[in-house]
């Protein structure tokens, strides 16, 4: 018996980390759900079929998606945009099309123009992921995570997408596409750009700086290791980044002024920042100590 929170047939376009993890999560929770995957890489398709991760795998979108009541675009965001129209035209009336892209406002606007009438688009963004592609996929990736689900679409379709992600163990955070991009500009995209700038500045600081670089720089620049197609293409699509950068600059100038003013001002500013960090992340992260 398939839970009403899950589709009877799920379409996944892309079997990288996110698509393959979704397939493994659904397979572990409800083996009766039929999973159809679109994946251009021959070796990945063969492995997914051999390992029982999917029931059908095809190299390009086609009739195999016609019976899917929920199809999720799990490619990098630059590939999601041109897929909206062609994939929607393969789906039946009443089907839902969603995605896992990290920038939503532009995508939701495109979907209004490109997704065919009769198919409902709901933007979604899992706030977790990483590296590894198909080989890094895990059935528990969704458990304990947060997925932003955009409320710009039809309410019933939004509910179904939220229910789907919650059935896999995530919490669904409902917000508009504009609200999502404003928040994610500050907590995801700007940190990626800052990590990239810091890595470039540290490298330009010369051989002594590179030789003395330790865990602090490694941790602070971790996001810079993401390929451009994964994070750079997303960040450049978020129109809210300049506003987020202004807010960051205000805080940085405030802290710089404090550390030059007096020991007590420096203590107050940096202790307030530490408490702010603890309020966002109240429990230690992996490898952290308290």
Strand order of the largest sheet: 3-2-1-4-5-6
Number of strands: 9
Question: What Rg, in angstroms, do the CA atoms define?
Answer: 21 Å
| Overall CATH architecture of the largest domain | 3-Layer(aba) Sandwich
CATH superfamily of the largest domain: NAD(P)-binding Rossmann-like Domain
Overview of this protein structure:
This protein has 290 residues and is of the alpha/beta class. It folds into two domains: 9-177, NAD(P)-binding Rossmann-like Domain (Rossmann fold); 180-280, 6-phosphogluconate dehydrogenase C-terminal like domain (6-phosphogluconate dehydrogenase C-terminal fold, Orthogonal Bundle), CATH 1.10.3660.10. Helices cover 50% and strands 13% of the residues. It is built from eleven helices and nine strands. The protein has helices spanning 17-29, 42-50, 77-88, 105-114, 155-167, 177-204, 207-212, 215-220, 228-235, 241-261, 263-280, and strands spanning 9-13, 34-38, 56-58, 70-73, 96-99, 120-122, 124-126, 146-150, 171-175. The strands form two sheets. Strands 3-2-1-4-5-6 form a six-stranded parallel sheet, with helices on both faces. Strands 7-8-9 form a three-stranded mixed sheet. Helix 10 (241-261) packs antiparallel against helix 11. The longest helix is centred in the middle third of the chain and has 28 residues, at 177-204. The termini are far apart.
